[in-house]
Design goal:
Blueprint: E1 2-4, E2 7-9, H1 16-25, E3 30-33, E4 39-45, E5 54-61, E6 64-72, E7 82-83, E8 88-89, H2 105-126
Length: about 140
């Protein structure tokens, strides 16, 4: 068994470890069990005092990539680093990070959402995305 932080990599992984980690690191996020077996976390993030408070949802889906969405404020049309088919944030490229159910929403995904918000706010002001990005080989985006 490989230990990854506080998460154990095994077939008997308990997804409620995500709930405990989120409560420890981001107590402002509340969770709700979904009928499909996923866990939905919703909470507020403010990355700088001069930026708006964002309401964010993150759906933990086991081994499928988490779906992070901005609920409020409403995003502009066609923001960068965004999956338009399901209105979720593009937080990483699968060549640079491989999501597994044992990975941590609290230690990986929430900080990346905060980073996305920060770079989005700068992009709104400057028109340039200063955050990390990966060039894609084709029009199909892999994340």
């Amino acid at each position: 068994m490989v230990i990854m932080g506080m998460f154990q990599k095994n077939k008997n992984y308990n997804p409620y470890l995500q709930v405990y980690a989120m409560k420890a690191h981001f107590p402002q996020f509340k969770h709700k069990d979904l009928r499909n077996g996923s866990i939905m976390f919703t909470g507020k993030l403010q990355v700088k005092p001069e930026f708006p408070v964002y309401t964010v949802s993150i759906e933990y889906r086991g081994n499928k990539r988490p779906k992070a969405k901005i609920i409020r404020p409403k995003l502009v049309v066609n923001p960068p680093h965004f999956y338009h088919q399901d209105d979720t944030l593009c937080l990483y490229h699968k060549k640079n990070y491989y999501w597994q159910k044992e990975n941590s929403l609290a230690l990986d995904i929430v900080p990346w959402v905060a980073g996305w918000i920060y770079f989005y706010e700068i992009w709104l002001q400057t028109g340039k995305w200063y955050g990390p990005e990966v060039k894609h080989e084709s029009k199909k985006v892999f994340h």
